[in-house]
Amino acid sequence: MNQIELKRNGNGYSVATVGNPAAFEGKAFVKEVMGTTSMEVSFGSLAEGQAVPFFHKHKQNEELYIVISGQGVFTLDGEDVEVEAGSIVRVAPSVSRCNRNTGKEPLVYICIQAKDGSLKQSVAEDAVI
Protein backbone atom coordinates (compact mmCIF):
# COMPACT_ATOMS: atom_id res chain seq x y z
CA MET A 1 0.00 0.00 0.00
CA ASN A 2 1.50 3.36 -1.00
CA GLN A 3 -1.12 5.61 0.47
CA ILE A 4 -3.04 6.24 3.63
CA GLU A 5 -6.42 4.53 3.68
CA LEU A 6 -9.18 6.02 5.83
CA LYS A 7 -10.89 3.21 7.76
CA ARG A 8 -13.33 5.19 9.88
CA ASN A 9 -14.31 8.82 10.33
CA GLY A 10 -16.34 9.45 13.49
CA ASN A 11 -17.50 12.45 15.43
CA GLY A 12 -14.17 13.97 16.46
CA TYR A 13 -11.89 11.11 15.40
CA SER A 14 -10.48 9.33 12.36
CA VAL A 15 -8.82 5.94 11.95
CA ALA A 16 -6.59 5.11 8.98
CA THR A 17 -3.83 2.72 7.94
CA VAL A 18 -0.68 2.66 5.84
CA GLY A 19 -0.42 -1.10 6.23
CA ASN A 20 2.97 -2.33 7.43
CA PRO A 21 4.96 0.90 8.02
CA ALA A 22 8.31 -0.85 7.39
CA ALA A 23 7.09 -1.82 3.90
CA PHE A 24 5.77 1.66 3.03
CA GLU A 25 6.92 3.10 -0.31
CA GLY A 26 6.81 6.68 -1.55
CA LYS A 27 5.49 9.70 0.31
CA ALA A 28 2.05 10.29 1.83
CA PHE A 29 0.62 13.07 3.99
CA VAL A 30 -1.88 12.38 6.75
CA LYS A 31 -3.59 15.80 6.72
CA GLU A 32 -5.49 15.25 3.47
CA VAL A 33 -6.96 11.96 4.69
CA MET A 34 -7.55 12.62 8.39
CA GLY A 35 -8.11 16.38 8.52
CA THR A 36 -5.48 17.21 11.12
CA THR A 37 -5.45 20.86 12.19
CA SER A 38 -2.42 21.28 14.47
CA MET A 39 0.27 19.13 12.87
CA GLU A 40 1.33 17.56 9.61
CA VAL A 41 2.41 13.93 9.61
CA SER A 42 3.89 12.17 6.62
CA PHE A 43 5.24 8.73 5.82
CA GLY A 44 8.31 8.64 3.61
CA SER A 45 10.50 6.00 2.04
CA LEU A 46 13.78 6.28 0.16
CA ALA A 47 15.04 3.32 -1.88
CA GLU A 48 18.67 2.17 -1.71
CA GLY A 49 20.92 5.05 -2.86
CA GLN A 50 18.00 7.51 -3.11
CA ALA A 51 17.97 10.97 -1.47
CA VAL A 52 15.48 13.76 -1.03
CA PRO A 53 16.28 15.88 -4.13
CA PHE A 54 16.59 19.22 -2.30
CA PHE A 55 17.68 20.91 0.91
CA HIS A 56 15.02 22.92 2.70
CA LYS A 57 14.14 24.91 5.84
CA HIS A 58 10.79 25.89 7.29
CA LYS A 59 9.28 29.26 8.15
CA GLN A 60 7.51 28.10 11.34
CA ASN A 61 7.46 24.32 11.69
CA GLU A 62 9.89 22.12 13.53
CA GLU A 63 10.12 18.53 12.31
CA LEU A 64 10.51 15.26 14.16
CA TYR A 65 11.66 12.27 12.11
CA ILE A 66 11.17 8.73 13.45
CA VAL A 67 13.13 6.13 11.49
CA ILE A 68 11.12 2.91 11.13
CA SER A 69 13.60 0.84 9.10
CA GLY A 70 16.81 1.12 7.13
CA GLN A 71 19.92 3.28 7.46
CA GLY A 72 20.69 6.73 6.24
CA VAL A 73 22.27 10.12 6.75
CA PHE A 74 20.56 13.37 7.63
CA THR A 75 22.54 16.43 6.58
CA LEU A 76 21.67 19.18 9.07
CA ASP A 77 23.22 22.60 8.41
CA GLY A 78 26.08 20.83 6.62
CA GLU A 79 26.69 18.21 9.31
CA ASP A 80 26.10 14.54 8.42
CA VAL A 81 24.31 12.54 11.12
CA GLU A 82 23.92 8.77 10.69
CA VAL A 83 20.51 7.25 11.48
CA GLU A 84 19.02 3.76 11.62
CA ALA A 85 15.80 2.06 12.68
CA GLY A 86 14.79 3.54 16.02
CA SER A 87 16.54 6.89 15.50
CA ILE A 88 14.60 10.07 16.30
CA VAL A 89 15.75 13.39 14.82
CA ARG A 90 14.34 16.82 15.77
CA VAL A 91 15.04 19.68 13.38
CA ALA A 92 14.33 23.36 14.21
CA PRO A 93 12.72 25.47 11.45
CA SER A 94 15.91 27.40 10.63
CA VAL A 95 18.09 24.31 10.11
CA SER A 96 18.74 23.31 6.49
CA ARG A 97 17.98 19.63 6.05
CA CYS A 98 18.11 16.76 3.60
CA ASN A 99 18.26 13.00 4.05
CA ARG A 100 19.47 10.02 2.04
CA ASN A 101 19.47 6.26 2.20
CA THR A 102 22.93 4.76 2.75
CA GLY A 103 21.81 1.18 3.40
CA LYS A 104 20.77 -1.86 1.39
CA GLU A 105 17.06 -1.70 2.27
CA PRO A 106 14.52 1.14 2.08
CA LEU A 107 14.89 3.99 4.58
CA VAL A 108 11.35 4.36 5.96
CA TYR A 109 10.43 7.19 8.32
CA ILE A 110 7.59 9.18 9.80
CA CYS A 111 7.90 12.97 9.82
CA ILE A 112 5.81 15.08 12.21
CA GLN A 113 5.64 18.84 11.70
CA ALA A 114 4.20 21.32 14.19
CA LYS A 115 4.61 25.04 14.77
CA ASP A 116 7.80 25.64 16.74
CA GLY A 117 7.05 26.68 20.33
CA SER A 118 3.31 25.98 20.08
CA LEU A 119 3.08 23.09 22.56
CA LYS A 120 1.71 24.68 25.73
CA GLN A 121 0.46 21.51 27.42
CA SER A 122 1.65 17.94 27.38
CA VAL A 123 -0.02 14.73 28.50
CA ALA A 124 0.01 15.38 32.26
CA GLU A 125 -1.27 18.96 31.95
CA ASP A 126 -3.71 18.32 29.10
CA ALA A 127 -5.36 15.05 30.13
CA VAL A 128 -8.78 14.97 31.76
CA ILE A 129 -9.50 11.83 33.75
Q: Which term fits the overall shape?
A: globular
Q: Report the β-strand fraction as a percent range.
A: over 45%
Sheet with the most strands? 5 strands, antiparallel
Count of helical regions: 2
Average pLDDT confidence is: 93
Distance between the termini: 37 Å
- C-alpha Rg, in Å? 16 Å
- Which bin fits the share of residues in helices? under 10%
Structural class, from helix and strand content?
Answer: mainly beta
Describe this entry's structure for a reader.
There is one protein chain. With 129 residues, the protein is mainly beta. Helices cover 6% and strands 47% of the residues. The chain has two helices and ten strands; from the N terminus they run βββαβββββββα. The chain has helices at 31-34, 123-126, and strands spanning 5-10, 13-17, 27-29, 40-46, 61-69, 71-76, 79-84, 88-91, 97-101, 107-115. The strands form three sheets. It has a five-stranded antiparallel sheet with strand order 3-4-10-5-8. A three-stranded antiparallel sheet has the order 7-6-9, with no helix packed on it. The longest helix has 4 residues, at 31-34. It is globular. The relative contact order is 0.22.
Helix and strand layout, with pairings?
Layout: E1 5-10, E2 13-17, E3 27-29, H1 31-34, E4 40-46, E5 61-69, E6 71-76, E7 79-84, E8 88-91, E9 97-101, E10 107-115, H2 123-126
Antiparallel strand pairs: 1-2, 3-4, 4-10, 5-8, 5-10, 6-7, 6-9
